Recover the amino acids of this structure.
């Protein structure tokens, strides 16, 4: 018989660590249908029984308002897991219990896992498990998931509950959790209103509570007629008049009175609120008025220099050698020896190895960025960065939580887009993803290096810097524009917890890094592979499907010539530029190599003087700048495209993002060229 | 004397009385996070750029914008 256990808990309570501990490599990560929220499932290891573990989104409450809460609640109510394991942060019991009360109201089998016992012990808090159990009337098991302690007992107790208890659908605890006046109102609804409803009600007391609370989702699902709603309103008004608060506040308040009372009885805290914990001391520096921003910049600088500096370039060279050197040579020799057709040899070495290779060289760097991102997340630093930067980002219509994702975008768009998962608000996430491509990523640097060497050799740094600034300006303006048009919406609350600093375990970090990296490699890899083949094909054959030597005669050459007029008003309407920009679709770096090939320069890199000379005849300083602006702003590379699709979980929004950025690119390059011409530049 | 949470200075302690305003995402979120009547709250600090603020409530650290804090009435 297979069992289902659901993990529920606040964000930052160590739920994912527990999940990893229980399921290990059996876990599978996907999306909840129709939304961009992650769904994790796995099987419990080291047990004989067949137990499926499902990790529900981190939530503070079971109200029907945010996607995460709706998903969690719907799963518990509809899928009926055998046990709901509620994970609490032992250093923060009072607030964590708020969710627990709502789970208890539901009347499902709950087992409480009191996590982070090591941190609680370190703080000197004394927690009486027996008292907790007697008040909550469910098993409470102390654990420290990061060290694997208590997990076995937790599973055993949960198994025990699943196999012996039967959820009766009634919440006996409700009467003790809530105030008398609330309980009598609930009973009133249960007696008079529920029987009048058409639907069959499984959990009548819980439903009555939800109706009293004014839960819109329950109202809709049950199709409560207006007459009954009015009766409920009378009960609500009575309570509201008595306490001078609205009904939602009354019930929330009542829950917190319960959690406060239980905590007071069960927990003896050593420290006062005015006492500074180690976290607080660290924060004195990290969120210090003067030090915070410089410290943050220094840290990001450190991360970028490691990833894109010595270690980064080492990994690039290593993979480059491996793929374009060793593997390529091996394959081409083997193919030639096996008598493979010329086109096949070219497909493998030019198309597959070339295309894939240009992407694969960046995988180590991307993984490195993921690793650092995991450190920032797991330690709790991300929240501090959001706290410090929020005011700045508010001008963009975003919140501080978008800051780090956008900053990472200056390195590479792929990890940046993936890190937007920490944004709970869907509109914020969409807007951030749409703006990330404007952060000039590392892949564009070779293009800038080449063109500034050709046209702005005396002020290379200034010009490149101006492009970065241009990207930021466009992002800011886009933020305004999009927020007023297609991404209009209520301002999301910034109310956010600052979790205590934690030392992440290496195991946890590796799991996070591998998790993100695996997704990227699989998804991006598939798309890049297909696109590399297609582009190779278009470059190799002409429209009569005959192989050609000069790419100008090929299909992509024809395509380039066909669309070149689009770029004429921007100043670079020649077909070579058009084709180069098309190949920039695979990877931005390809723009340089394609330009080289098309201008007849062998082995083109950004330092190639032959290519520089060739470009100087094809462009002017003005058109060169317009061109660079276009490559900065237009559609992101294949890998980013694949990541956007995955994170937004919608073709519509992916295409909107791509269309928007390309449209903006065209407009900006147009303005640069035309205004420049008017101003007398050529 | 009633004040709003926004008016408290770093280091000042008080008790929550109520959250102004009708139903809304912000109010709900604040309540879920424990900002309810009777909760003790202490302002820890203000962010370097002047906003948001960090408070200690129910034993943990919470941040919120001043525009959110000005709807919270404290003693």
């Amino acid at each position: 018989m297979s069992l289902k256990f659901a993990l529920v808990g606040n964000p930052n309570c160590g739920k994912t660590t527990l999940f990893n501990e229980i399921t290990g490599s059996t876990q599978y990560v996907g999306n909840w249908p129709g939304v961009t929220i992650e769904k994790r499932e796995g099987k419990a290891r080291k047990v004989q029984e067949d137990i499926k573990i499902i990790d529900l989104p981190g939530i503070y409450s079971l109200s029907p308002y945010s996607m995460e809460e709706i998903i969690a609640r719907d799963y518990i109510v509809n899928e009926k897991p055998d046990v709901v394991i509620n994970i609490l942060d032992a250093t923060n019991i009072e607030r964590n219990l708020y969710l627990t009360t709502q789970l208890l109201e539901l009347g499902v089998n709950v087992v409480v896992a009191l996590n982070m016992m090591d941190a609680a012990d370190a703080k000197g808090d004394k927690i009486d498990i027996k008292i907790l159990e007697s008040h909550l009337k469910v098993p409470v098991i102390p654990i420290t998931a990061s060290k694997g302690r208590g997990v076995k007992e937790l599973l055993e107790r949960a198994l025990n509950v699943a196999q012996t208890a039967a959820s009766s659908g009634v919440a006996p605890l409700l009467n003790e959790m809530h105030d008398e006046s609330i309980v009598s109102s609930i009973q009133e609804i249960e007696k008079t209103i529920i029987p009048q409803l058409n639907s069959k009600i499984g959990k009548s007391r819980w439903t009555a509570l939800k109706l009293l609370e004014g839960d819109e989702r329950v109202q809709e699902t049950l199709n409560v007629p207006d007459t009954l709603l009015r009766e409920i309103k009378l009960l609500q008004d009575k309570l509201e008049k008595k306490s001078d608060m609205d009904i939602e506040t009354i019930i929330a308040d009542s829950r917190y009175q319960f959690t406060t009372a239980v905590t007071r009885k069960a927990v003896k805290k050593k420290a006062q609120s005015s006492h500074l914990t180690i976290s607080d001391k660290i924060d004195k520096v990290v969120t210090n008025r003067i030090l915070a921003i410089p410290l943050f910049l220094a840290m990001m600088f450190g991360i970028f220099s490691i990833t894109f500096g010595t270690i980064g370039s080492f990994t690039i060279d290593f993979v480059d050698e491996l793929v374009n050197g060793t593997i390529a040579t091996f394959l081409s020799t083997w193919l030639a020896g096996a008598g493979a057709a010329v086109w096949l040899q070219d497909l493998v070495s030019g198309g597959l190895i070339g295309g894939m290779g240009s992407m694969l060289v960046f995988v180590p760097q991307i993984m490195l960025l993921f690793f650092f991102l995991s450190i920032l997340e797991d330690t709790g630093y991300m929240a501090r960065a959001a706290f410090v930067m929020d005011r700045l980002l508010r001008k963009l219509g975003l919140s501080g939580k978008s800051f780090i994702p956008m900053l990472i975008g200056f390195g590479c768009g792929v990890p940046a887009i993936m890190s937007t998962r920490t944004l709970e608000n869907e509109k914020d996430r969409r807007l951030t993803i749409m703006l990330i491509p404007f952060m000039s990523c590392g892949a564009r640097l070779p293009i800038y290096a080449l063109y500034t060497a050709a046209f702005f050799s005396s002020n290379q740094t200034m010009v490149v810097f101006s492009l970065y600034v241009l990207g930021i300006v466009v992002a800011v303006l886009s933020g305004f524009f999009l927020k007023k048009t297609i991404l209009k919406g209520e301002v999301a609350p910034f109310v956010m917890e600052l979790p205590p600093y934690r030392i992440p375990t290496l195991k946890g970090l590796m799991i996070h890094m591998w998790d993100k990296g695996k997704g990227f490699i699989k998804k991006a890899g598939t798309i890049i592979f297909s696109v590399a083949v297609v582009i190779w094909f278009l470059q190799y054959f002409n429209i009569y499907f005959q192989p050609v030597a000069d790419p100008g005669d090929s299909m992509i050459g024809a395509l380039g010539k066909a669309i070149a007029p689009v770029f004429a008003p921007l100043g670079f309407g020649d077909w070579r530029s058009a084709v180069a920009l098309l190949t920039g679709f695979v990877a931005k770096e390809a723009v340089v190599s394609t330009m080289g090939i098309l201008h007849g320069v062998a082995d083109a890199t950004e330092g190639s003087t032959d290519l520089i000379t060739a470009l100087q005849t094809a462009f002017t300083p003005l058109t060169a700048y317009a061109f660079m602006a276009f490559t900065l702003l237009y559609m992101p590379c294949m890998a980013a495209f694949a990541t956007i699709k995955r994170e937004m979980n919608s073709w519509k929004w992916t295409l909107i993002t791509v269309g928007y950025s390309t449209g903006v690119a065209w407009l900006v390059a147009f303005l640069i060229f035309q205004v420049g011409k008017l101003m007398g530049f050529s | 004397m009633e004040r709003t949470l926004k008016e408290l200075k770093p280091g000042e302690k008080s008790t929550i009385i109520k959250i102004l305003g009708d139903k809304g995402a912000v109010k709900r979120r604040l309540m879920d996070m424990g900002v309810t009547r009777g909760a003790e709250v202490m302002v820890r600090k203000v962010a370097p750029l002047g906003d948001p603020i960090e408070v200690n409530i129910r034993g943990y650290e919470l941040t919120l914008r001043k525009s959110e804090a000005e709807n919270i009435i404290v003693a």
